[in-house]
Design brief:
20 helices; Peptidase_M48; metalloendopeptidase activity
Length: 488
């Protein structure tokens, strides 16, 4: 992982979040951006773990992070849930968001976004699996499609109210009745609130339905719902004070204590209630949790959470990463100690390669990245790391292989902006200017810089043979028109 940060904003909907000041038009459309499990974001953004593009929604961007180990763990959690939810044949990408708030959401039927905070706060796999099960309930229940329909109906209610209110005001003006005028104006002003509350009531129902679906999926996969209850307990504790001042009918989600009570009986009577996660899965969870904490926190915080007296492997992992952030070369000894304990762990090899690369020794980083790829063949992020190290080594003899490996990485992981930038460098150093421009254009598209992407693609087109695959790819970028947002 590298530490490159993109900027972004959070969505406002969540487990305990309320949609503030939601009006008709573009703000109504914002309600449709995601169905989520979240609390209001009290915790600020962290240093990014890995270089990647930001997901744009309604002109906003989310800071995304990439980590092969964390993504592999989340896929392990999700696959059994997806299967019983009838989503096994659907390509659903699980994407990490660089935010320490406990939040997850689905903006469509193919992407599930999970904040780093979910992993950092979850002590057991079951807490994350419960979140994934809830989001799967939204996808399987087609809640996003139905929510858009409900929003349209809510807007209709509001518009009708405004028309009737305006009519009453006109009639009052004609009759000279000032109370009729004021009454009509009040009706017009309140009609938006009626539509909003209708929409929120519908959304609360969908959240409750997703909770029930999550329990069904957990039961079908022989997993405990205890993790879900723990999540709601956490939320309820944070809402103890604020709940006294909150209108429950102005929330997009049911209150946490209400959700806890609704689910507790069924969760506790399940024969799987006391079934713990397999030890191997808990170990993987602890390792990823330590890793994310180490990459997203100050080294002093890492040592506080994982003191030298803690000899567990997750603690050693966290301290090695903290050391690497201070001095990559000095951390090699600690990383080698990890490798000796688990020589077949590809992520320890990846960490060693990263430490060498970031400390200015890319040529030495090539071998550990090769080992990581040998231990986990086909891992796109390892291929990109390896190509990156080869390009950075300034060894011209490695450029053809670097180009091949980077292209393999892009086929596996097509959304990596870093892969395109390194591929552009590899092409340029081999005198392939048009191909370098095209790779740069693709990378710019991944970063959301459409204007710059068009400029590079147009330049590439001039030096590419018309009608070739590369020329057509450049043409696609030149002619790309961003979709209209919020119906505008």
């Amino acid at each position: 992982m590298t530490r490159h940060q993109t900027t972004g904003q959070r969505f406002v909907s969540g487990y305990g979040a309320k949609l503030k000041d939601m009006r008709l038009g573009s703000r109504f459309a914002a309600m449709l951006s995601a169905l989520s499990v979240a609390l209001p974001s009290f915790i600020g953004a962290t240093a990014a773990l890995s270089p990647e593009t930001a997901f744009a929604q309604s002109g906003r961007k989310l800071p995304l992070v990439r980590d092969a180990e964390a993504e592999d763990l989340l896929r392990s959690y999700a696959q059994p849930i997806f299967k019983v939810a009838g989503l096994g044949n659907t390509q659903i990408d699980i994407i990490l968001v660089n935010d320490k708030a406990f939040n997850a959401f689905v903006p469509d039927s193919h992407r599930m976004f999970i904040n780093l905070g979910v992993i950092l706060e979850a002590e057991t796999p079951g807490e994350i699996i419960g979140v994934i099960a809830h989001e799967s309930g939204h996808i399987a229940g087609r809640h996003l499609v139905r929510l858009r329909e409900a929003a349209a109906n809510a807007q209709i209610i509001a518009v009708i109210g405004m028309i009737l209110g305006a009519g009453a005001a006109v009639a009052g003006g004609a009759s000279g009745n000032s109370s009729a005028i004021s009454g009509g104006a009040a009706a017009a002003l309140s009609s938006g609130n009626v539509g909003q509350r209708s929409m929120l009531a519908y959304q609360r129902g969908e959240e409750a339905a997703a909770d029930r679906a999550a329990l069904k999926y957990l039961e079908a996969t022989h997993q405990s719902g205890k993790g879900m209850l723990k999540t709601f307990e956490r939320f309820a504790e944070q809402q103890v004070f604020s709940a006294r001042f909150v209108d429950p009918y102005a929330q997009s989600h049911p209150m946490a204590n209400e959700r806890y009570r609704s689910l507790a009986t069924d969760v506790m009577k399940s024969k799987y209630y006391d079934t713990p996660a397999p030890a191997a899965l808990q170990h993987r969870h602890d390792m990823v949790r330590a890793k994310i904490l180490a990459f997203s926190s100050h080294p002093n915080e890492v040592l506080r959470r994982y003191p030298r007296s803690d000899k567990s492997l997750p603690a050693q992992y966290a301290r090695a990463i903290a050391s690497m952030k201070r001095d990559g070369r000095a951390a090699i000894k600690e990383i080698d100690a990890l490798i000796r304990q688990e020589p077949s762990n590809p992520y320890f090899q990846e960490l060693k390669g990263q430490a060498l690369l970031e400390s200015g020794n890319p040529k030495a980083a090539i071998e550990p990245f090769r080992r990581a790829l040998a231990l986990k063949p086909g891992e796109g992020q390892f291929q990109i790391w390896l190509g990156y190290a080869m390009v950075s080594s300034n060894d011209k003899s490695l450029l053809p292989e670097a180009e091949t490996i980077l292209k393999q990485g892009i086929r596996t992981d097509p959304n990596s902006g870093i892969a395109y930038s390194q591929l552009a460098i590899a092409h340029a150093r081999q005198g392939e200017t048009a191909e370098a421009d095209l790779a740069t254009a693709k990378g710019m598209m991944m970063a959301g810089d459409v204007d710059a992407a068009r400029r590079y693609a147009a330049r590439a087109q001039k030096n590419l043979k018309r009608g070739t695959p590369a020329w057509l790819q450049a043409d696609d970028i030149v002619s790309y028109k961003p979709p209209k947002l919020n119906g505008r």
